[in-house]
Amino acid sequence: MKKHRITFLPSERMFDFDDGDTILDAAMKAGIYINASCGGNSSCGKCKIKVIAGDLISSRHPKIPRKDYEKGYRLACKSRPQGNIVVEVPLESQIDRSILRGKDRKPLILSASDLGQLIKEWKADPAVFKIYLELPEPTADDNISDFGRLERELHNILKKNNISIDLRTLKKLNGILREGKWKITVTFSEKNGFYQVIHLEAGNKAKQNYSIVIDIGTTTVSGQILDLANCRHDICTLGESSDYNAQVRFGDDVITRIMYSRKKGGLERLQEAVIETINGIIKDLLNESNVQKTSVSHLVIAGNTTMTHLFLGLDPKNIMLTPYTPVSTVYPSVIARDLGLDTEDHVYAQTFPCVSSYIGGDIVAGVIGSGMSRSEKITLFMDIGTNGEIVLGNKDWLICASCSAGPAFEGGGIQFGMRAEKGAIEQLRINPVNYEPMIITVGKVKPKGICGSGLIDSVAELFSTGILDQNGKFRRDLATSRVRLGESGYEYIIAYRDDTQIHQNIVITEVDLDNLIRAKAAIYAGCKVLLESVGLTFRDVEKIVIAGGFGHYIDIEKAQVIGFLPELSLEKFVFVGNGSLLGARLFSFSKGFMAEAENVSKMMTNIELSNSQKFMDEFVAASFLPHTDGKSFPRTMKMLKNLSLPTVNTAR
Amino acid sequence: MKKHRITFLPSERMFDFDDGDTILDAAMKAGIYINASCGGNSSCGKCKIKVIAGDLISSRHPKIPRKDYEKGYRLACKSRPQGNIVVEVPLESQIDRSILRGKDRKPLILSASDLGQLIKEWKADPAVFKIYLELPEPTADDNISDFGRLERELHNILKKNNISIDLRTLKKLNGILREGKWKITVTFSEKNGFYQVIHLEAGNKAKQNYSIVIDIGTTTVSGQILDLANCRHDICTLGESSDYNAQVRFGDDVITRIMYSRKKGGLERLQEAVIETINGIIKDLLNESNVQKTSVSHLVIAGNTTMTHLFLGLDPKNIMLTPYTPVSTVYPSVIARDLGLDTEDHVYAQTFPCVSSYIGGDIVAGVIGSGMSRSEKITLFMDIGTNGEIVLGNKDWLICASCSAGPAFEGGGIQFGMRAEKGAIEQLRINPVNYEPMIITVGKVKPKGICGSGLIDSVAELFSTGILDQNGKFRRDLATSRVRLGESGYEYIIAYRDDTQIHQNIVITEVDLDNLIRAKAAIYAGCKVLLESVGLTFRDVEKIVIAGGFGHYIDIEKAQVIGFLPELSLEKFVFVGNGSLLGARLFSFSKGFMAEAENVSKMMTNIELSNSQKFMDEFVAASFLPHTDGKSFPRTMKMLKNLSLPTVNTAR
């Protein structure tokens, strides 16, 4: 992507930013504070900057008087530089917050080439593949059966005898052989060295072989369409799509869904809902990639254990009842159409194996997709959502646990919490002098609420500007009307009523803070218990993989500030984005990977945290900002010291 | 079965016969001629005998004057002896025809104990079996998934890891485990060392495991129900049933059925028809055996290649078009219910592999069922119907051929031909003095026509009484009005109009004779060509196995008289009855047998006779009575000499 360099005056900080970003975006990324309270919607008119050199597109906004416009004043949220540029930030906004960063952020998310590297070990060798054959025509001297003829030729090519065919396909064989004048394309599904013929086409269609992979999240379902025939050591993703899981209308989280499944017809309705969502995604993927439905040969599904049960129509009841036993953690392949999926009738849906009720196929997929299960490095894998799923280990051993973080990370239990939709505040910067906020929302519209990553960002900002103390309480002695006693205790007003879409003040309350602290404490404590169970500490961890759509948006340093993530070198962190989708993608590309998925799911030892006293102890210890054990967070503690704020006693 | 001894005077021949037989039956079996022209219906009143000693049940018939009745005269067809008995046969019937037999007939049909012997080599080890398990209940320390728990226990018992489950069954797992309080019965289907769980029942049902085996004949469908759980080295057949194949309404033979399948919707109608027939048989079998439908776990089907195609809904078109390629000769297992069969939804239908378009699964089943493919002895296996299927070989090699015999053996192309139903003449004896016939019909009713085995019997009788010459023509110089010039040439009147159900004279014509001679010549020539192709002659054959429902009724010696079967020692012949059903039965009992069936089907080399000049030559040579090569039929030739009739020149 094209980059431009921006120089902010008077600090003279320079920053390379993406073409298309506004100056507000760039400032936010660079840690330059610019006043902005409408989320980048240009309605507050506060984010004024002055252009010193360079071109930018920025029509005059009513909030900028003509006189000022002529002097070069513009709204940062409305200005898109056309090349390198120098801007001056008005005096009241000249706080350089980059002190917190130590150095420029580096992109941590795995790039496509990193992924290529990651899967290089797996040769493209899909379990569902096509072969084009030109068969000799039958004669009086060679009148074996049509299938015998096919089998003989395949034996010559595959050197295998274990070839079978299902009745549905066999019924079409004689017609297609003759229609194609004995030139046909055969689609196989291989398992355990047995080759099943699942589809036949007249003529040569061997190069049209696609798969669709789906990650069923509790909230979001994502899919990709892959080109299986034309890839070697790379992932040929032709399209991506995602949508909300239509099951949300029956409940927000797995527990409410399981409750719903117990109603009469509930399980069927939940299954139909997710199938409906997947069908929508399949349609989008086909449109986007211009692939014919008839050329899609394979479907791979990963999801948490409850989502997997609901997808297949398995009763999830016992997942929520002690002792939390799922029906199964391995799942049969099924004809996708039999589940109601809108695919050709030869397409099998293969579902990722799970580990336990709360460690699902999405985690198994992520663990393998991230390369962790093939690496020597001791890796901590975290998938963060309502449940935090944590996996620790390397190629030789893997232990895992699930800790109930509560819904705070997904905006649940937070007064103005919302999903990361348009209008969700995702970043907050606070002027440490006057405690005025600057916000950016998803979609750059007036704010409606705060999403999970925005909450982490906000709490870290409130904490590091001294507005919040280590107990997660607002300081009552600050010279700002933004901190006040509201209906449910003390709160900080992020956006005033008039600057919002919802015509209410958007606030963060101490109740919200409690919920967030509990959530981050649970994850941190879970990691700590897993580490201790094998005699390790965070210092021994060589790599931390953060997975999950939400994890994707987390600012590592902000998360470290609040003690959600350990204070390890940023180089150790990688995001794999949707690890589950990545794993599913590899699953479709390589039958070796399939076998590995089953092995890894069996190799993972599940540690039950719900009844662990050790976990409870660690949880309590982590329920501070950043942690009662300040020594583990030296950078944050140093920052607090610089703020000259009182710190809590960290002795336990 | 209880036996009685009957002594016929004045010949003093003694004969042991079955309790329940009439004196007419006994005389027929013993080769004692008694005048009878109504088939045993008592309407002709000709079969008079006189009781000398012993008891019999026989009410006075109007055709016996009271005075004669008091003297001890009875109708043989109405008299059932109650113990040993001595009867006198009236003078005009005192011809002892046992000269033709050489000695008493021995029962050639394999008895149940012979069958037991035959299958002793196959250990009862069904591919579909049940295991009863008592699982430990889940606890917090042992909360693996329900299927994981099952798998672990099965691993301990079966020592196998290759256990899978289908989605339909998996859906029921959690409910049944808890309903059965963790005590359940699991039904498996094994293939290639992989164990698939196909059914679950609460509690211990391991002893209720049954299979149904079906032979789909073109004309007749037969079935048996077997007890899989309670057998070791034996065949536990709990019931048998058969019915006409409902496809007969669309055509009598495979060719007309294939023609019909090409009509719009024809294939579907043919499939539905046979499924309807099988469903009727399943219902009968369950009623007869008192087995619950829910306890039937397996279905095995054998049939000729066309019947197999129609059963599975495979297009049979190319079976009748050169170069005669079936769609396949191996068939996938399918859920029987998906085909419309009235079984539980976990029951798989497994279909016997075939060899070629005209050597079907019934033949493969018969070959293995007869033990031929495990024997050192060079064996000739013949399944006689519209097509004669012949297999030659032993455990090391097998060659086979199909020869179109035409429908004569099934009563087709014969003026009064009919199936072996009630009223079909099955045996004919002729008084060599006055050429008057004695007949017995199926069901002992007035005759309606002649069935296939009756035709062979009749022609042999006509031939050996000198009524017929070696060309298959009636002698025109005999002192009988029964041979006359009819509408379609010369004919012999077996039953006069008044003695029949159809109020027409029942005759055998020279056209009928031509058809029969062509049929027997085709079979004989086919055997000869197969033998010659491996450098053998009939003398090298150590065993002849005659299979097929029709074969069952053939009198070997009569068949030798007309040159249909070679003149080998009677000890070499065995009937296996329905060999196909026998094979299917073993298939269900032993998974080793299943594997063998596929191997044998692949090992059998099909010899195409339709274009063979050698076959044509042999066919022409065999189109005489018994054969142009009289040296191969010394006994018949001697008999002809004794009759002092002119013989044809046998030089070729």
Quaternary status of these chains? Answer: homodimer
Strand portion of chain A, in percent?
15-25%
Content-based structural category of chain A: alpha/beta
Largest interface: A-B, 45 and 45 residues
Shape of chain A: globular
If strands are numbered along the chain, what order do they take across the biggest sheet of chain A? Answer: 14-13-12-15-17-16
Can you describe what's shown?
2 copies of one chain form a homodimer. A 6-stranded mixed beta sheet of chain A has the order 14-13-12-15-17-16, sandwiched between helices. Chain A has 16 helices and 29 strands. The two termini of chain A are 50 Å apart. In chain A, 28% of the residues lie in helices and 24% in strands. The A-B interface holds A 138-140, 142-149, 162, 164-167, 170-171, 173-175, 192, 194, 312-315, 317-318, 322-332, 334, 356-357, 608, 611 and B 138-140, 142-149, 162, 164-167, 170-171, 173-175, 192, 194, 312-315, 317-318, 322-332, 334, 356-357, 608, 611.
Give a short overview:
Chain A is α/β, with parallel strands linked by helices and 652 residues long. Chain A is 28% helix and 24% strand. In chain A, strands 14-13-12-15-17-16 form a 6-stranded mixed sheet, with helices on both faces.
List the helices and strands and how they pair.
2 copies of one chain form a homodimer.
Chain A: E1 3-9, E2 13-18, H1 23-30, E3 48-53, E4 56-57, H2 66-71, E5 73-75, E6 80-81, E7 85-88, H3 112-119, E8 128-134, H4 146-158, E9 163-165, H5 167-179, E10 183-191, E11 194-202, E12 210-216, E13 220-227, E14 237-244, H6 254-261, H7 266-289, E15 296-303, H8 305-312, E16 334-335, E17 348-351, H9 361-369, E18 379-383, E19 387-393, E20 398-404, E21 424-430, E22 437-441, E23 449-450, H10 452-464, E24 483-486, E25 489-495, E26 506-509, H11 510-533, E27 543-547, H12 556-561, E28 573-577, H13 579-589, H14 591-603, E29 605-607, H15 613-621, H16 634-642
Helix pairs in contact in A: 6-7, 9-13, 9-14, 11-15, 13-14
